[in-house]
Automatic annotation (TrEMBL), chain A:
Topological type in the membrane: Peripheral membrane protein
Domain ABC transporter intervals: 6-259
Keywords linked to the UniProt accession: ATP-binding, Cell inner membrane, Cell membrane, Membrane, Nucleotide-binding, Translocase, Transport
GO cellular component: a single term: plasma membrane
Protein's recorded name: ABC transporter ATP-binding protein
Protein family (similarity comment): Belongs to the ABC transporter superfamily.
PANTHER family: ATPASE AAA-TYPE CORE DOMAIN-CONTAINING PROTEIN, OLIGOPEPTIDE TRANSPORT ATP-BINDING PROTEIN APPD
Organism: Actinoplanes utahensis
UniProtKB/TrEMBL annotation, chain B:
The protein, known as: Peptide ABC transporter ATPase
Organism: Actinoplanes utahensis
PANTHER family: ABC TRANSPORTER, ATP-BINDING PROTEIN, TRANSPORT ATP-BINDING PROTEIN
GO molecular function: ATP binding; ATP hydrolysis activity
Membrane-crossing segments per the record: none
Domain of life: Bacteria
InterPro entries: AAA+_ATPase, ABC_transp_ATP-bind, ABC_transporter-like_ATP-bd, ABC_transporter-like_CS, P-loop_NTPase
Stretches assigned to the ABC transporter domain: 4-245
Alphabetically ordered keywords of this record: ATP-binding, Nucleotide-binding, Transport
Keyword hit for Zinc: no
Keyword Oxidoreductase included in the entry's annotation: no
One biological process term in Gene Ontology: transmembrane transport
Gene3D superfamilies recorded: P-loop containing nucleotide triphosphate hydrolases
Length: 294, 257
């Protein structure tokens, strides 16, 4: 097995509200260089909270209540992220670990051109890079995700949803980090573009040996692209294994349920009949009345 | 009994032809899926049909009449053609409760309705989208609901003015798989109950097939293939449709390697 790049040990995150939400519970994981680790699980199970916790971008009321995250660099040095100050964290964030946030396509600044927002990554982290090189790099990166470089001059509203999402992915690739955490990065993309991007990610991974944590609820997609898959439920990892093993021999009921809940493209309609309301489907997303404060 | 028709729509932006001679018809009781590549012009079509933007050329007809650009008939149009967008976070205001979101369109379209009746309509709408107990949900604010529940509020809001046509731009792509199917199944049910014409914009071929009558495939601004859902998916003719169908996730294929 290749060398570990990130070790997560007994990591726990609470939202300190009344009553507190234990969003991540005792999660332990090791990520290896060159690996794509899929993280799946139903809405609200804690995937994004874990991701934000790893890069230490949680905001109150979220609080890390236990465990640690250790980054192992190429020369064998270990960095405990808990011990870094804010400045060091900021530098490490895009440089060693980058992240594509869930819904990030809507977080581009609407009044600044794509070029200025993109170049800003280099201006901040590669201050010595020449202006010409910066321009060149931004254009190259955009083309890697299938967006024409002349779109650099556009403003966010002039791009389609999928294009904005790809801009965010390109930005996360910009500094060639050793770890990329991608939280639902392809929700706005059709499968053809999705595949082009995944191919690009795995090409970069082979070239640069970086590791990817790919978060999505799209289990069929994960099965295709991941080496290992972790399934989360209620803040804890309930199953972790090789993608193939998980598909052919899911141990946890919840994993089986996730696998079964997908309509197939060419198969019959299964239980997903139009016109007749299937209350079982909505029961999964019923409003929890008990949560209400009196 | 509404029919919305687009004839030869073209939309140009600064040197980009986003929509290139598209014609389509949305009829009550039918769902048409619009699928296609990222950037192919799907959302632009939605904005044109909603009259949020004007086409460069071509025309839009509601029940055979060219649409109005202003006045009472525009108000009527806005009431008849409703929308649901992709991002349930962005489309609801975090500072207002669910009741506020639903009461607004009800009042707008029924200015003389009493406060009690408006409230009753709100509860009724919540029940229609199965957000129960309705009185309880009405008091919640968007962040106290899951993504799927928020999207159902958005659907209830779209139904508030009793529209004839619903345009849904990627309504479930940000939702959990299990919840996604629940929301689509609900949309399909409401569509039958209300005899709505629905345009379902998506990049997901599987749900396009299972939840619509016809599929239109868009590629670089043009409709390159159209037909009954099953035949477009099971027997695609255009190269792009074939590519799209081949690229659909298929775990068996990878794991067979
Ligand atoms: N700001 C907050 N305050 C209180 N609770 C929160 C907050 N943000 C998230 N939570 C709760 O923490 C839990 C985990 O949420 P998180 O967003 O990490 O889930 P997720 O798995 O990423 O879900 P999704 O698939 O919908 O993105 C949920 O129960 C959620 O309601
Ligand atoms: N306001 C605008 N100004 C300039 N160009 C625009 C504008 N809106 C859309 N475009 C361009 O029109 C084309 C079609 O965009 P549209 O958003 O309709 O695509 P889409 O099919 O919805 O894509 P996606 O699947 O990624 O959402 C794109 O090239 C986009 O950049
Ligand atoms: Mg999340
Ligand atoms: Mg779009």
């Amino acid at each position: 097995m290749s060398r570990p790049v990130l070790t997560i040990e007994d990591f726990s995150v609470d939202y300190l509200i009344e009553p507190p939400v234990h969003a991540v519970r005792d999660v332990s994981l090791t990520l290896h260089s060159g690996e794509v680790l899929g993280l799946a699980g139903e809405s609200g199970c804690g995937k994004s909270t874990l991701a934000y916790g790893i890069v230490r971008l949680l905001k109150p009321p979220a609080s890390i209540v236990g465990g640690r995250v250790v980054f192992h660099d190429r020369d064998g040095g270990d960095t405990d992220w808990n011990r870094l100050g804010p400045e060091q964290l900021r530098a490490a964030r895009w440089d060693t670990i980058s992240m594509v946030f869930q819904g990030a396509m809507n977080s581009l600044n609407p009044v600044i051109s794509i070029r200025d927002q993109f170049e800003d990554v280099f201006v901040t982290h590669r201050p010595r890079m020449s202006r010409r090189e910066r321009r060149q790099r931004c254009g190259d990166l955009l083309e890697r995700v299938g967006v024409d470089r002349n779109r650099l001059k556009s403003y966010p509203h002039e791009l389609s949803g999928g294009m904005r999402q790809r801009v965010m992915i390109a930005m996360a690739m910009a500094l060639e980090p050793q770890i990329m955490i991608m939280d639902e990065p392809t929700t706005a993309l059709d499968v053809v573009v999705q595949r082009e991007i995944l191919r690009e990610i795995s090409r970069l991974r082979d070239e640069l040996g970086f590791a990817v944590v790919f978060i999505t609820h799209d289990l069929p997609l994960l099965l295709e692209i991941s080496d290992r898959i972790a399934v989360m439920r209620d803040g804890a990892i309930v199953e972790l294994g090789a993608a193939k093993e998980l598909y052919t021999n899911p141990r946890h009921d919840y994993t089986r349920q996730l696998l079964a809940s997908f309509p197939s493209l060419t198969g019959d309609r299964g239980s997903f009949v139009r016109g007749a309301l299937d209350d079982r489907l909505l029961a999964l997303d019923a409003v929890d009345v008990a949560e209400e404060n009196p | 009994m509404t029919v919305l028709e687009a004839r030869g729509l073209i939309k140009d932006y600064r040197g980009i032809r986003a929509v290139d001679d598209v014609s389509l018809t949305l009829e009550h009781g039918r769902t048409v899926a619009l699928v296609g590549q990222s950037g192919s012009g799907k959302s632009t079509m939605a904005r044109l049909l909603l009259q949020l933007e004007r086409p460069t050329s071509g025309e839009i007809l509601l029940d055979g009449e060219p649409v109005a650009r202003r006045g009472k008939r525009l108000t009527l149009y806005r009431r008849t053609v409703q929308m649901v967008f992709q991002d349930p976070f962005a489309s609801l205001n975090p500072y207002h409760d669910v009741e506020h979101h639903l009461a607004r369109p009800i009042r707008l379209h029924n200015p003389k309705m009493s406060a009690d009746d408006v409230h009753r309509r709100v509860l009724h709408l919540l029940e229609r989208v199965r957000l129960t107990p309705a009185a309880h949900v009405a008091r919640r604010r968007p962040h106290e609901l899951s993504g799927g529940q928020r999207q159902r509020v958005a659907i209830a809001r779209a139904l508030a003015p009793e529209p004839g046509v619903l345009i849904a731009d990627e309504p479930v792509s940000m939702l959990d798989v299990s919840i996604r199917l629940g929301v689509l199944n609900l949309l399909a049910t409401l569509q039958r109950e209300e005899d709505l014409g629905v345009l379902y914009i998506t990049h997901d071929l599987a749900t396009a097939r299972h939840f619509s009558d016809d599929i239109l495939v868009m590629y670089r601004g043009k409709i390159v293939e159209r037909g009954p859902a099953d035949s477009v998916i099971l027997d695609p003719q255009h190269d792009y449709t074939k590519t799209l169908a081949d690229a659909a996730p298929n775990p068996d294929r990878r794991l067979a390697r």
